[in-house]
């Protein structure tokens, strides 16, 4: 088996994994939730308004910027409370964890570790590779 064939097999295994399937379903649920999509659209429009005010003159627009910040925070909080967004974030966290583990195993193998026995310790992983040299 070539490396490319092995990677394609890995891709098939990932797509068969329940974490991947839950992630895909959560994405579909988010996309189908019109209320959530409207909230996300409103958030993006407010964010663009905020950016325009920042580009114009932040000092002159301080009061408007403060109002927009509060509105952005409120919209963001509402978006994060949406049950579909909660499920999506949980599924995404599981996928991210799986991805980190896969990346760490591949990195260990590239460093000469035994592919059958190497086991990455992700318990101390902060996501900042400068601390340890990188596992992902």
Give a verbal description of the structure.
This protein has 136 residues and is mainly α. The protein has helices spanning 3-16, 18-32, 34-56, 62-81, 83-110. Helix 2 (18-32) runs antiparallel to helix 5 (83-110) and helix 3 runs antiparallel to helix 4.
Question: What does this entry show, briefly?
Answer:
This protein is mostly helical and 136 residues long. The chain contains five helices and no strands. Helices cover 74% and strands 0% of the residues.
Helical amount = over 70%
What's the tally of helices? 5
The radius of gyration over CA amounts to: 21 Å
Largest sheet: none
Which outline best applies? Answer: elongated
Query: How many DSSP E strands?
Result: 0
Overall average residue pLDDT: 89
Separation of the first and last Cα atoms: 25 Å
Pick out the low-confidence regions: none
What amount of the residues lies in strands?
under 5%
Order of helices and strands: HHHHH
The chain-level structural class is mainly alpha
